[in-house]
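INTERNAL AUDIT FORM
Audit reference: QA-55
Scope: verify that the stored structure record matches its stored sequence.
Auditor: D.O.
Record contents follow.
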Amino acid sequence: MARIWCQLALVIVTFTVAAPAVQAQTASPSLSIDDLENGGFAFRNDDGSLTLAPLLTSEASYSVDGILARATITQQFINPHDEWQEGIYLFPLPETAAVDTLTMHIGDRVIEGRVERREEARVQYEAAAEVGQQASLVEQERPNMFTASVANIAPGALIRIEIAFQHAVDVRDGSYSLRLPLVVGPRFTPEPSAALLVSNNPAEPEHAAAVDADRVMAPVLNPADGLINLVHLTLNLAPGFPLSAIESSSHPLDITDNRDGSYSITITDGVIPANKDFELVWSPAPEASPHITLYREQIGDQTYSLGLVTPPVTDQANAPPRMPREVIFVIDTSGSMSGESIRQARSALLMALQRLHNDDRFNIIRFASDHAALFDSPVAADPDNLLIAMDFAASLDSGGGTNMLPALQTALADEPPARYLKQIIFITDGSVSNESRLFAEVSQSLGNARLFTVGIGSAPNGYFMRKAAEFGRGTFTIIDSLGEVEERMAELFLSLEQPKITNFEMFWPDGSNVALYPDPLPDLYSGEPLIFTARVEGPAGESLIQGDILGQMWSTEISIGQARPTEGVARLWARARIDDLEDAIIEGHDRASTKKTITEVALQFGLLTDQTSLVAIDVTPVRSPDQMLMQRQLPLNLPEGWDYEAVFSPTDSPQAMPTTLLQTVSLDMPSGATASELLIFIGLLLLSVAAVLALLPRAATQQKPA
């Protein structure tokens, strides 16, 4: 009898703990908004009524000068309610962006933002919101993900928020490109381990990702209900050299040649929904690509520089014999990869398998909520094994969470035989919230291997792709469509098979004190230029760059003093220094002191980081304290090509599926059900009764006469 009571109590307690997780994994019914006015969108309240959220439109204005890009994002918050509103919006930016400007427009009033310590900025914003002042706050959640909060939007009013940033464009294989993310895809959050929950140590990267997951989530609208968050994008491109092509794999373009060496570019459709990244690629005319590009900014006695140097193409006739490779393919088959993404991933994997040589070894690890390897250990890339692998790749389907860490650990675990070079090719959309934990794993466990990331889908997590490749001493590749798979994978494998340029060094004039980033300078794969930023105190004249190409020393001279004067270079140097400091934390350096240094650099140069925020406050109150302020979080589109049902309906059993992003993304909020406190009380009561009943037979035995 006591055993039955124990089992019943345990079932109730287990249900009490598990019920919220199970409920969180079930997508709520989609919310139709066809009948809403002004094309608005809404949340369903606890009583079933609809409440309009503030409308939002965005404008993106880009100016590209050589390799330096400057952009302004303008977001409009409109309040169609008859009550005061606070709007909260999660939005992406390029992962290398140096964000430095916040401006709030309220009618004819213009309020300039300022960079403050994150905690102080939050206190100032909340205090302003409380007393009825109009205020805005921009906070960094990840280097490519930000939250904008706007308080006290008056009934019927419009508030414009401008955010400005700059970054260097990407250069690869002689082509120049920039990528502007327009939507944040839903992110998977693994449960913290039991040890972390007990220790509650916020210094642990895995735990930190678990506790701040709500900061990188937003409601997601079912595409069946239409698309929202419209964006108008304009771009002025001044490449500095004649072009052979300007193209975009993401959107059709209207291009105007301004006849002065610049081009005006707009998207053909004019206004587009923010549901996939925008990519622009421009290629120099033959023999027009510059060998060296330099910018500088003078602040006091310090010279800040941004440089691009392109080493010569390696002569394959003198290349050493090809080294056999052990290639581990890691492929994401989670729910976020459904639809177009899984087709791209399968195609990329099949293409990669065809590039293997007879003397290579390989294995495939697929992951979603769980992970599994095709072979127990890497096998020879012979026809029989490749046929098995191709059948396996063609049969891959998607579903479940993006539990990336176990698969990554498996891929990094073993060292290959002595004569093999280990290369890991990671194919994913990167839709995770625990990036720092993953970077730490790569940093600690990489050994002599190399990690190459392949971003899949219309809105991959560029921060994960770029930074994982940096820690993995590899490169990253983004594939936007099925039509690009063959070209991009061929480029990737060509770079893997080419000899690298190694042992880069820079020599500065005597008497110069130089802070150079990246530090140390990285090895380069074929087609990659060296992009650096430096702060020089003292002489900034002729400098020398040298590297090792196929055992031969190559060198070239640059002159920082003759570089083009350009505003904003100092902030790019500061952004690179902050990035280096953040890497140091992941690599195990003291967190507290390094975060302090990050804060000091960010405040000195006026940059937004995870330690600093931008806040703008209008000193004049507009809402009286007796008027309620309602908070609304603005929903996002689902990235183009994603399958809504696959993302928000688990394909595994609830018991097998870890806690995921689904607890925060539903528009139809769950309500009702028995209070968890009551269930916990009943469970504990039954456990107590069971314990008493279990002791009764023992007590009777002890009292029985001899």
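Auditor finding: record pair retrieved intact. The domain at 50-281+610-637 is CATH 2.60.40 (Immunoglobulin-like).
Action required: none
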